[in-house]
Design goal:
The chain is α/β, with parallel strands linked by helices. It contains 6 helices and 6 strands. The protein has a 6-stranded parallel beta sheet with strand order 3-2-1-4-5-6, sandwiched between helices.
Length: 192
């Protein structure tokens, strides 16, 4: 992980990886398969002005034998490096390598990684957010006391029926980032 200067911020945004920051191309095995969404850098720069940034990703392809653990780590490390070169600090990457059938403690929507980050970084979770393209990314936030936001990129449109009408959803990460910054400035409400 980069040596990020940790400001006095205690709020965080927990970001899903595939379908939120980068295009979801199935089980990503190589850094060459990483394709940042064109809006990702702008969104993350906006968010990091007020929030610490974390990536939390379920990579069940490891547990299924479709991706090697060291390849998944290389992909995560490369993504963090690319973002760092763009001026973005990802404070940590948390990755679950299990399948749903493993019934592990760390797979989203279980709040294990948010609790770990809270302990490691002394975070104010009630003023933090999760963002992702699966219903479990929203539930990941609500189970921990954060606000879960849903994006329609990646698998978002396919799973839209899986989130309730009172959940907050956006076309993409940049729209979500603008809403977070504006809602913290006193503007609230569901944009959709």
């Amino acid at each position: 992980m980069p040596n990020c200067n940790t400001p006095s911020l205690s709020r965080a945004v927990f970001l899903d990886r595939d379908g939120t920051i980068i295009e979801d191309r199935g089980h990503i095995r190589s850094v060459g398969d990483i394709e940042l969404y064109p809006f990702a850098v702008k969104a993350l720069k906006l968010l990091q002005e007020k929030y610490l940034l974390f990536i939390v990703t379920n990579q069940s392809g490891i547990g299924l034998g479709k991706v090697r653990l060291d390849d998944a780590i290389k992909v995560n490390d490369h993504l963090v490096s690319v973002l760092e070169m763009a001026g973005i600090c990802i404070h940590d990457v948390y990755m679950c390598s299990h399948t749903r059938d493993d019934n592990c403690e760390c797979i989203k929507p279980k709040p294990y990684f948010i609790q770990k980050a809270q302990n490691d970084y002394n975070l104010d979770i009630t003023n933090s957010f999760t963002i992702g393209d699966h219903p479990h990314d929203v539930e990941f936030g609500t189970r921990s006391g954060a606000t879960g936001l849903y994006v329609l990129t990646g698998h978002g449109k396919k799973h839209r029926a899986g989130i309730s009408d009172h959940d907050v959803f956006f076309e993409n990460l940049l729209e979500a980032a603008h809403w977070i910054i504006e809602s913290r400035a006193g503007k609230t409400g569901n944009p959709k």
